[in-house]
Design brief:
By secondary structure, the protein is mainly α. The chain folds into two domains: 228 residues, Citrate Synthase, domain 1 (Orthogonal Bundle); 103 residues, Cytochrome P450-Terp, domain 2 (Cytochrome p450-Terp, domain 2). Helix content is 57%, strand content 3%. It has 16 helices and three strands. A three-stranded antiparallel β-sheet has the order 1-2-3. Strand 1 and strand 2 form a beta hairpin. The two termini are 35 Å apart.
């Protein structure tokens, strides 16, 4: 019998979803039917939490209820904070997130329950904020701090990380970043978490599985790699020579360009570019990196657009985060903080509506039957 397979599961359908719609040809991204541009411009991360978990945008009372649940669950076990601070300061930020959620899985070990799963999902999002904030604080030698409720989720998180006030533009930019990274159908991290959820492993453990996939350089670390290009170039005047040497002659990949799904400009990248430009005007070094990125984008499009390769969401996101004060080592963890919402929404959708143990097959290409010989005869 002749069997066929798809390397990397490319274009293999593993579930139905009402969460995210992507049109890679026309550059369209929608959550639950709403264009990403409208959600960023007119809603908030809290509204998107409700949208992804309950199916519709909330009214005022529903939004207040979500906020109250978020604010009530920022606290984490003291043993978890101690664990974060006991690790070497050079520890990988996403690796610490994995350890933290593994500890939560050990402490709570919740079973799947349709009546409480969405409350658990909201609690996980809140705890992810406190964990992420304390990863930065531990690595920077600052005292631990539980997230305290402010005007909104983005401001609460930023104030906890840096213990200072932020402008409305800065808070809005962080809120936009959280919305933009929420979900993107079933990339590697979501798929890894879905495999775990199909076994009915607890939601914390499913997040650990997703984090393990996100940590890989071919997935979540792209924003760090793209930003490191700008740091390496260091001057707008050197962009062309760097591109010629590294990309054309060196045949290296231009990080932050190209996407498995999008064959045009990633709609998220356009929004990240807007906020990166806006914030970088108040940060001289970030502004240098923005100008480098902008020129590199122009050259990249000129060279690769005929192959349908354009900037993706990770090309400009690092500049936004850097402008807010985050070091490069936090970029992927910030991606994870947002994507936790998309992960748990997919896990709930799969377990409650389409549950079946995910158990693929492989095509055997090894040797035919061989006779066993004892050790002294080999």
């Amino acid at each position: 019998m002749s069997l066929t397979f798809s390397r990397g599961l490319e274009d293999v359908i593993i579930k139905e979803t009402s969460l995210t719609y992507i049109d890679g040809v026309n550059g369209i991204l929608r959550y639950r039917g709403y264009n990403i541009e409208d959600l960023v411009n007119y809603s908030s991360f809290e509204e998107v939490i409700y949208l992804m978990l309950y199916g519709n945008l909330p009214n005022k009372s529903q939004l207040e209820e979500v906020r109250e649940k978020l604010y009530r669950n920022f606290d984490v076990p003291k043993e978890l904070i101690s664990m974060i601070y006991s690790l070497p300061k050079g520890s990988n930020a996403v690796g610490i997130l994995e350890s933290a959620f593994g500890m939560l899985a050990s402490i709570y070990d919740p079973k799947w329950d349709k009546s409480t799963d969405r409350d658990l999902a909201i609690s996980i999002i809140s705890k992810a904020a406190t964990i992420t904030a304390n990863i930065y604080r531990a690595k920077e030698g600052l005292k631990p701090k539980i997230v305290e409720p402010k005007k909104n989720f983005a401001e609460s998180f930023l104030n906890t990380v840096f213990e200072k006030s932020f402008s409305n533009d800065e808070v809005k930019a962080m809120d936009a970043a959280l919305i933009l990274y929420v979900d993107h159908e079933v990339p590697a991290s979501t798929t890894a978490g879905l495999v775990a959820s199909s076994t009915l492993s607890d939601m914390y453990s499913c997040v650990v599985a997703a984090l393990a996939a996100l940590k890989g350089p071919l997935h979540g670390r792209a924003a760090e790699d793209a930003f490191n290009q700008f740091v390496e170039i260091n001057s707008e005047d050197k962009v062309e020579s760097w591109f010629e040497e590294k990309i054309i002659k060196g045949k290296n990949r231009l990080m932050g360009f190209g996407h498995r799904v999008y064959k045009t400009y990633d709609p998220r990248a356009k929004i990240f570019k807007y906020y990166s430009e806006k914030l970088s005007k108040n940060n001289s070094q970030a502004n240098i990196y923005y100008k480098i990125a902008s020129k590199l984008e122009e050259i990249g499009i000129k060279n690769f657009s005929d192959k349908k390769i354009y900037p993706n969401t990770d090309f400009y996101s690092g500049i936004l985060f850097y402008s807010l004060g985050f070091p490069i080592y936090m970029f992927t963890a910030l991606f994870a903080l947002s994507r936790v919402l998309g992960w748990v929404a997919h896990f709930i959708e799969y377990v409650e509506e389409q549950h079946r143990l995910i158990r693929p097959r492989a095509i055997y290409v090894g040797p035919e039957k061989r006779d066993f010989r004892p050790l002294n005869e080999r």
